Each structure stands twice: as C-alpha cells, then as structure tokens.
Amino acid sequence: MTKESTSRTRKPKRGQTREALMSAALELVVKKAPFSALSLREVTKKAGVVPTAFYRHFPDMSALGLTLLDESFRTLRQMMRQVRQQELPNERMLRGSVETYFTYVRNNRAHFLFVSKELASGTPTMRNAIRREIRMFTNELAMDMARFPFLNHINAEDLQMMAGLVVNNVTALTQEMLELEEIDETGQQEVLITAEKQLRLIYFGVGMWRSDKSHS
Fold first, then answer.
1. CA torsion 118→124→125→128, rounded to 10°?
2. Cα(18)–Cα(56) distance, rounded to whole angstroms?
3. Which of 52, 151, 175, 186 is 20 to 30 A off residue 39, Cα-Cα?
4. 142: burial class by Cβ within 10 Å (0-12, 13-18, 19+)?
5. Which of 165, 209, 187, 36 is nearest to 102 (CA)?
6. What is the pLDDT of residues 26-65, one digit of tens each?
7. Domains in the chain, please, with CATH?
8. Coil, strand or helix: which one is 58?
C-alpha cells in the first residue's frame, strides 16, 4: 500500500471527526449527488468513521447540511462587508468586490456546488435556509446603498429592489462560474468582466431612477 493510499484510508483522530464528516459530505456532493441524496452511511464511510461517531457531532444529516451551509456563507459575508466599507461605489470598489467574491467562489468551489445543488433540488429546510442567507445579503447591501449620497432620492423599498437585482445577477453568474471547468481561466475571466459591467450598469444607472413618493 502506498503512502498516499494509507493517508486516504487512515481514520481521523478524535478531534478531527467533525471536520472529516463535513469534508466527506462536500467531496461526495462534488463527485456524486446533491447533499439531500446522501445517506449517513455514505458520509461516515467516506470520512473513515463508524456511523455511531456521527451522532457525537450532529443529531442528523439535516444538521450537518445546515452547518455546511453556515460555513459556506459566514466567511464570505465577512469578506464582502470589508470590501463594501467605501465612501462611494466607484469602479475600484466594484472591481474589488467582484474579484473578492469570484476568487472566493473559485477557492471554495465545493461549498458553492453544495449550495447550488441544494437550492435546485434540496429539501425544503435547506432551500429555505439558503434563501434566508440570500435575503441577508440583499438586506445588508440595501443598507449599504442607503449610505451613498447619490441615492438619497431613492426610498428604502426601491433600494431593496435594486439590491435584489445585484444579488440575483451575481447568483446567476456564480452558477455560470461553477459550470466552467476549473482550468478554464479564460471563461472565468469573462464571467468576472461580465459581472463587473452588470454591477456598474445597475449602480450608475439607478441615478436616473425616481422613486414613487407615495412609497417613501
């Protein structure tokens, strides 16, 4: 048996079991099926632990999925908040936001494939949790947009709508990025350029928008 194969079959240490279960689930999602189609036995076998060890870390598969979901979004939220701490949505900020986001997507491809598959065909619990995360992104972006002086004439309801346009666009482009081969650098760059152009159009196009005063 080679050193590499020994490493693959070695059981995780006690303190590493939780991470091993999460990594195993992600690997199975990438190579095989949506998370909701996985069984507990499949995940524990891939992780190299007995099924009873699973319950020392998660009450059920749904809890494992929700933990993976939280991990998938938590760091991203923090990163994007830092990028958005700018006076105005100028081109440098837009480019920085796009590059930060899609670099994170590329570096965490398994997590985003997991989210994408669950949003399309996961359980109601998982789909609702993902939608809550997306709404959180939208709400935070709308609050950020309210800080920009050139959007002072736009009411809160319309700012929420515009933030939704941004998030929906980026979500669709994320799916395009995930459908590309990992080695397709040209295709990935094209997605990044498209995202930047679309965000610029939304941000600087809203200057012409006039909110209905009756909804202010």
1. 80
2. 9
3. 175
4. buried
5. 187
6. 999 988 778 888 999 999 999 999 999 999 999 999 999 9
7. 14-58 (1.10.10.60), 65-208 (1.10.357.10)
8. coil
